[in-house]
Amino acid sequence: MDVKRILMLAFAIAIVPMGAGASDINFGSTARVMAMGGAGIALGDDSATTALLNPAAPACAGAKFRFIFPGLDFHTVGASFSDLLDSVDKLGGDEDDALSLVNDFAKQRTGLTFNMVTGFTGPTGVTIEAQANALITPSPEAAKWATAALLFRDSKDVNLTNVQTIIDNPNFDAAIANALAGNTAAANAAFDAYLDDLNQTFVDANVVYGPSLLLGKGFNTTNGKMWLGTNIKILSTEGKSWQVKGTRVGSLAASGGNVLADLNFEAEELPSEGRKTTMKADVGLIYKPNDSIWQYGVVVNNFIKPKVRGLTNTQDDPMISVGVAAALGRNFLFAADLVNITGANDDNAKLRLGGELRLGKLFALRAGYSGSKWTYGAELLGLNIAWSGRSAQLLSNVLKF
Q1: What is the pTM of this model?
Q2: d(CA 355, CA 371)
Q3: Hey, which of 118, 214, 284, 291 has its CA 20 to 30 A from 58?
Q4: pLDDT tens digits, one per residue of 161-218
Q5: 74 within domain boundaries
């Protein structure tokens, strides 16, 4: 069996579990590459989508200008998209629903990212990209507290004795012991020290937005064709952070061998640096040998490194990625990328694979592997959609999670 048949068979098998465990969704121009596992560094057949991976892609279209249909990318880390939908249903519910929300998000680090891109590509192109994200980072103590949260009906008269076996913290134990011994001052001091351990849960909101200038050119070589390109971005960045804090209201009270507490929770906004402006540039190359179905690509992200300040969890070191792609017949495309071969930002290299089977001019099926999860997607009447367990991070983004 030849390579083409093997790849198409694997692609068909991958489609079978479509939608199983899916959490991330994408629409528009970002959805094509996301459905193919984020792979496509060496593709240049559709500059409106592949420009998000390789700035050399627009040059492959020559003098043809292409509009980038607005693309939307929703990405989660920690809680899955289905978990978030379930959480939305709990908003505005009863006390048990509210406590369940605390339980959902305090058990794991959860990141929510929303991307948008639009514009046009060509020998000279302009794109507008925006990204917003929220990051919830609970402390180990918050996770233990969340395990016990559903035992509480409200923030008043919380029976601390009932959850002592769940919360393994010396300050918490000292608070209960002192309260039962009648030493209220020592009990309050110990419980406040425990809350200091607990109050390390943060919510971060970061926004990066601004225009990009795409420049590219093709060259004939002795053995094939080469395209070079760069993506220069002027970025505005803004970031805010909130600390989720629990405080004691009144003194701990001992009653019938139990210790009761009245708690109050709030989110306190932390000082921020405000809006900052910076510049970054990516460079890329695509090469196609004569009489070959294969193309090869290289991308250097953050070739000019942005000076990003005031944002959390930013990973913006220069990163090199390589890829291959092939048109296996008239209707099937295959792409494979090895992302971050230099191990930038203390992250390992990831293999991304993807395929596209065209069923007509306006219809296609896609599937891939993002380096951690299977990805799936389709094109229906020209509209692209993708879903996955974990979608790949777009190489054109500054912030990586």
Answers
A1: 0.73
A2: 14
A3: 291
A4: 877 877 888 999 999 999 999 999 999 999 999 888 877 767 777 778 888 888 888 8
A5: yes
